[in-house]
Amino acid sequence: MLTDFFYTLKNRKVPVSITEWMTLMEALSKGYISSLDEFYYLARAILVKSENHYDQYDVAFQEYFKGIEGPAEINQQILDWLKDPAIRKTLTEEERALFKSMDFDKLLEEFEKRLKEQTEQHDGGGNWIGRGGTSPFGHSGYHPGGIRIGGQSGHGHAVKIAAERRFQNYRSDLTLDIRQIKMALRRLRQLSRTGYEDELDLDETIDATCKNAGELEFIWMRSRKNAVKMLLLMDVGGSMDPFALLCSQLFSAAHSSSHFKDFKFYYFHNCIYDSLYQDIERRGAVSTDHLLRTMEPDYKVVLVGDASMAPSELIQRDGIINYYEHNETAGVVWLKRIADHFTHSVWLNPDNSNYWDSMSVNMIKKIFPMFELTLDGLGEAMKKLTVNK
Amino acid sequence: MNTCDFDQFKGSSNYVTSEPLRNAVNVSIALGRPLLIRGEPGTGKTQLSHSIAKGLGKKLFTWNIKSTTKAQEGLYVYDTVQRLNDSRFGDKNVSDIKQYIKLGKLGQAFTSPEQIVLLIDEVDKADIEFPNDLLNELDEMSFYIPETNETISAIHRPITVITSNAEKELPDAFLRRCIFHYIEFPNHELMEKIVKVHYPDIKNNLLHEALKTFYSLRQIDEFRKKPSTSELLDWIRALLASDIPHDKISSEIPLISALLKKEQDYNHLVNTYMTRVGDNFVIRRK
C-alpha cells in the first residue's frame, strides 16, 4: 500500500502530516500523474516543505520504491497507455470495469510484483507482462506498438534521481552556512518599545480626542525593536583549527546580523582565565573581571569551543596552556563566574556530540548547557537563550 | 484522468523552467493552494510569477512584504485618521464607513472579476507571526470586515505564489497548506539555456568561457556572497558591450566587479588565486 510510503517518510524523519498526505491523495485521485518521475516531484512538492528535508525524502523514496528501480520507463508507457482514452474504447465492458477497479495504489503494488517477477525469471522477452490475465498490464495486446521491456531510458527517472541524493548538502543536521546561521540567530529576539515615538497609538488617540470634545489629538508611541544584546566568546587556535571556517561563518553571521541591539565578541584559548582578547591573535587583552563588572547581566552569552583540554587547564592555578602566562584563579572558576553573572548563556561545541566524553567536556557541560554547532544545535541553543527564567 | 486542465503552465518565452518546477506550479494551480518558492538569491523566484502571469495571460498583483508589513494590510486598511479628520469639517458623510475601508493586495485579488496571479514576495521579511495571520484567508480565500459587516470572498481563487529567502523559518501550520518547491541553482546546461534566452545572439565561445569562469568562481566556499544568475547576466552584458577578447575571460576575469559585490571577496580572489602581470591580475596556473 502507498500508505506505507507515508510511514517510510516518517521513519526517515521527514515531517509529513495527515493534511499533506490527504492533499497528495486528492492530487492523485484527480489523475495528474502519469509516471513515477512525476509522482516523485508531485509528492515532494506536496509533502516536503523545506530543502533541508529533500535528502531524507530521497532516501525514503529509494527505500520504498526500490523494487521499481529498473525499467521505470515501462511503467510510464503502461500508464500512458492506460490513460489513452482511444484505447480504452476498444476494451470490453468487463475489462473496463476491471480497469476502473484498479486504483493507483494497487497499480503500483501490482507493478512492483510484476517487476520482481521479472528479475527472478530474467528478461523473458515481451510476453511476461501479458501473462497477468486479469491484470491491467495484460491488455497490452491492444496497444499497437505493444510494450517493450527494458527499453533504453532516455531521461533520468525518479528512483535514479532519488539515488543521486543531490540535496545531501541541504540537510540541516549536517551543514551550516552564514545565511543559515543568521537565520538561526534571528530567533534571538525580544521586542520592546524603544526609540522615537513614531507610531500612532490609535486607542489612546481616540480616547484623547474624545476627552478633547472631538478636537483631534494625536498620541504617538515608540515602535517595537529588538532588545537582545549578544556576547560571543570564541575559542581560537590549537584544537579549534579544524573548525576555523565554521567558527568564522558563525562570527560573520552574528556580526552582520543587524537586529541585535548590541554585539560584543572576545577570543580565548582553550579556557577563559583572567583576560579575554579582542582579536584572533589574542592581542588587546581585556580583563575578564572588568567585563563582568561592566556588562549588564542581560547579555546573551554564546561560548564557542571544543571544550577539550587537559583537566589541569581547567582546575589548577597556573593551569593556563600558555607557558608565559599565569592564572591566579582556576579556569573552571572563571567559567562559573560567567555562568552566574549572565542570566542566559550557552556553549556551542563544533565537535560531534558522540565524542563529548572527555573529562573537561563533562565538567563544562555541567556549567553551561552545551549544544552541537549544527543548524539544529544552534536552533536549540537559541531557544535556550530566549526562555524566561 | 483529466490532464487537459492540468498542464496549464508551460513557461514563457523569457523564462526557462525545469520540469519539476513546472509540475509544482501546475499542482498548485490545480489544487488551488499557494505555491511556496524558495531558493538562492538570483535564481528567479520573483520572476516565476511574472512568467506564470504572462504564460497564462493573467494579470499579476504583487504584494511586497517588508519588515513592518502586517497581515491586516493585505486584507484592508480602515483609515480612521482620515475619518476622524473628516468629522471635524463635516464635508463628507462620515457615517458611511465604506469609503474609509481600503482593500489591500489580497483584498483586491479576491474581488478581481477575473482570475489573477498573486505574488506575495519575500514573505519571510515580515514578523515571524505574519504567515499565521494569513492562514485562514489563504485557506478559505475569504475574510470578514467587522466595520462594515461585510465578507469579502474570492470570486476566483487567485493563483498564489509566495517567495521566501529562508531568512526566517515559516510556521508549520502555514507550510502544511502550501505546495513547496526549492529552485536549485541551475546547472551548466540549464544556465546555457537561460543565458541564451536573454542574449540570443551570444557567441558560443564567449558563453562557454564565461560559464566556465562563473562556475569555478562559485566553487570558492570562502566567498561571503557567491555570484548568482542575475550577476552572471549582468556580467555577460558587460562583456558583450566591451569587446574583450574571449581568451582573456577565464584568465583575467575582466569586469569582475559585476560578479563580486564585496570587497573582501575580491581581495580573497586576488590574494589566493591571482598574480600580478604588468598592470593586470591574472589567474595563477596550478
Protein model, in words:
- The complex is a heterodimer of chains A (389) and B (286).
- With 389 residues, chain A is an alpha/beta fold.
- Chain A folds into three domains: 168 residues, no CATH class; 170 residues; 34 residues, no CATH class.
- Helix content of chain A is 43%, strand content 13%.
- Chain A is built from 17 helices and nine strands.
- In chain A, the strands form three sheets. Chain A has a five-stranded parallel β-sheet with strand order 4-3-7-8-9, with helices on one face.
- In chain A, strand 8, helix 16 and strand 9 form a beta-alpha-beta unit.
- Chain A is flat.
- About 14% of the residues of chain A have low confidence.
- Chain B has 286 residues and is of the alpha/beta class.
- Chain B has two domains: 165 residues, Rossmann fold; 96 residues.
- In chain B, the strands form four sheets. Chain B has a five-stranded parallel β-sheet, sandwiched between helices. In chain B, strands 3-4 form a two-stranded antiparallel sheet.
- In chain B, a hairpin with a 2-residue loop joins strand 10 and strand 11.
- Chains A and B meet through helix 2, helix 3, helix 10 and helix 11 of A and helix 1, helix 4, helix 8 and strand 9 of B.
Average pLDDT for all residues of chain B: 83
- The residue-averaged pLDDT of chain A reads 72
User: What structural class results from the helix and strand content of chain B?
Assistant: alpha/beta
From the alpha carbons, calculate the radius of gyration of chain A and give it in angstroms.
32 Å
Salient structural properties:
heterodimer; A: 389 residues; alpha/beta; 3 domains; 5-stranded parallel β-sheet; two-stranded antiparallel ribbon; 17 helices; B: 286 residues; Rossmann fold; 2 domains; two-stranded antiparallel sheet; 13 helices; 11 strands; 17% strand
Outline:
The complex is a heterodimer of chains A (389) and B (286). With 389 residues, chain A is an alpha/beta fold. Helix content of chain A is 43%, strand content 13%.
